[in-house]
Amino acid sequence: MEKETARMEAFSDGVFAIAITLLVLDVHVPEQVISKAALLTELRGSWPYYLAFLLSFSSIYIMWVNHHKLFKQIYKRNSAITFLNGFLLLLATSVSYPTALLARYYDSPAQALVVQLYTGLFVLITLTYTLLWTLASKHQDLLRPDLTPEAITQIKHTYRWGVAGHSLAFVTAFVAPPLALLLSAALWTYWAFTSGRLELTHPKV
Amino acid sequence: MEKETARMEAFSDGVFAIAITLLVLDVHVPEQVISKAALLTELRGSWPYYLAFLLSFSSIYIMWVNHHKLFKQIYKRNSAITFLNGFLLLLATSVSYPTALLARYYDSPAQALVVQLYTGLFVLITLTYTLLWTLASKHQDLLRPDLTPEAITQIKHTYRWGVAGHSLAFVTAFVAPPLALLLSAALWTYWAFTSGRLELTHPKV
Amino acid sequence: MEKETARMEAFSDGVFAIAITLLVLDVHVPEQVISKAALLTELRGSWPYYLAFLLSFSSIYIMWVNHHKLFKQIYKRNSAITFLNGFLLLLATSVSYPTALLARYYDSPAQALVVQLYTGLFVLITLTYTLLWTLASKHQDLLRPDLTPEAITQIKHTYRWGVAGHSLAFVTAFVAPPLALLLSAALWTYWAFTSGRLELTHPKV
Amino acid sequence: MEKETARMEAFSDGVFAIAITLLVLDVHVPEQVISKAALLTELRGSWPYYLAFLLSFSSIYIMWVNHHKLFKQIYKRNSAITFLNGFLLLLATSVSYPTALLARYYDSPAQALVVQLYTGLFVLITLTYTLLWTLASKHQDLLRPDLTPEAITQIKHTYRWGVAGHSLAFVTAFVAPPLALLLSAALWTYWAFTSGRLELTHPKV
């Protein structure tokens, strides 16, 4: 059976690859510094930029790994899948914006606000993954022929835990922003592992 | 029958993927803000940037979907197709420029001007799609072997309505700029649906 | 016979696609304009940016078309081809730099200098294409099995005319910069047509 | 035997292609220059930008060549390979940051510092390649079926020499920064040649 979604995956891969690479453009290069000590101080003060870069790079990479795994199960597409995938790419592309805000304002009175925006975006992203899978799995004929109902349910559960976790990080951002970021990092790590687990459960194509 | 246009499609996909992702670079990140309230005000005032990003992202995504569907019907290329495709990519790449102007000057006395430029570009884009299809469909041997004359005509009609609609949006921009943008958004949605319809009419490759 | 250069082509396509799309980032967006008339004046004054964008976009697109056609004839690679191809990609990527200089300083006393740099880069590019083909065609076993000696010579001639033409444009830049740019545009058009001719002479793979 | 790592390679190629092309954005375009002589002076003074661009472009290109050759030997992936590859892409993407610092501060009292950061990144990169190969080669079933133990060891030795060489460049940066850069350039050239040697030793896939 031919995979109809091949060109959509290739296009999505392109967008993920560019979105992940553009993140480095937001890392602050100090200007007009006149001594070695001053440059060192500037670089040390840029740590929120490095942290934001690292966190967002990891997030988009794991989003890509998951996208890859999700579309391994989807063989045909309909209009809803095409446009939800477009929305997912819009969100992946957008990551650089709250990342830039986070890097610039983490060390400021607006810390809570930028962490809320940052974690809020990931709530939206996990919701979109869930919706994409919910819509795709409604139509058995869109899926990989040998996918069992148990596997479909397992994927759904994994995404629901993702939504719950990122929502918790979002709520935490209102009371303890640094903790919210830590939680966000932990969640991507968790997602990385559970998506590994998913793959082991089913035979590979 | 081998598809001679495969590498041209892959290259075009690359250009579309980059053009769509670069749009986020134009979204304004507020600088030198000292309080949370000030940042919030700045972000709220940035809504034309978010709107322009959303509109242009959707436009390029639907352009890509259409490009994909168009080249599903074209199996061979000649010099005219190669260079019209190049012109189409030039226009797709250019979208970010009037988008940046729109975002920066929507909330200014130059509103009408930037909406005219923005909608005008889409007139050019739909005209180029129409021309590309007109030239390709003149030579039956360039097309997918099983494509019926009815299908060829249907695609032509779809593009003509696209040109008509975007021209209307362009004219509207001279009298009611916000309405012109609304019309533009509606047209992309329309195109999204009609291209879906086209696909259902013909068997897929 | 398998084509060993496939992944090199895919990577090169990626670099060409990105280089061509990044050009738009150099197109000047006017800042801090307060009236419609002022914005219109600014946009009209930005014509060297539009011209430079158009010229460089066309150049890179035709470079890509030629790269595609050249590598259709090359089936195996050696270290020399790998690194000359890398140098070609470096030059393709570099196009945006003299383009930015051209756009910014065409309307200034430094006009001749920036046109010299711009046309000079294309001398280097056509020289590199010639060298790449010279080295590849020395080893018959690297080439497409059915390529005739006449075809090999014809490609060599095409590239030599390219070098001669772009060298003429470069020399012209010292006496009549606008004429040099016109010549450069004419040459890309010429190359576009001759590369079309090459393809007609040989059966396609 | 199917190659499971195909989509990972395609994604990595995309990231390398973008990272290598973005480097040109950091090359300094002089602003507000009023005469030809002044522009010429500015361009001549920009030599550290050109040098940094050339060095980083070459580095990423050779990194890509090596990545290509490494993944020719790896047929299956596990979580460790997926995430080490992600870390490698993060480092490849990061190259533009120390490159920008190097270009801006090479001609300043902070010269030693920026050369240390630049060469330090390449120590990390070669270490990651070594670790990736060490982990992959532990599991014979992840590798190309016909790979001999001698070949596995030879690749390991090549990477170890890479780590040793870049560490030497890093240490040199503390006493003689220009020499460290020269050493770094020499090492990439060396790696280019040894990776060529590796390929000659084994039959190609």
Features:
mainly alpha, 205 residues, 78% helix, 8 helices, homotetramer
What do these coordinates show?
Four copies of one chain form a homotetramer. Helices cover 78% and strands 0% of the residues of chain A. Chain A is mostly helical. The radius of gyration of chain A is 19 Å and the shape is elongated. Chain A starts with 5 loop residues before the first helix and ends with a helix. Chains in contact: A-B, A-D, B-C, C-D.
Summed up, what is this model?
Four copies of one chain form a homotetramer. Chain A is 78% helix and 0% strand.
- SSE string of chain A: HHHHHHHH
> Biggest interface, and residues per chain?
A-D, 34 and 31 residues
How much helicity do the residues of chain A have? Answer: over 70%
Topology, number of strands of chain A? 0
Largest sheet of chain A: none
Spans of chain A of at least 5 consecutive residues whose pLDDT stays below 50 are 199-205
Structural class of chain A: mainly alpha
Strand content of chain A: under 5%
Oligomer: homotetramer
Count of individual helical segments of chain A = 8
**Average pLDDT taken over every residue of chain A:** 87
Q: Termini distance of chain A?
A: 11 Å
Question: In one word, what is the shape of chain A?
Answer: elongated
What does the radius of gyration of chain A come to? 19 Å
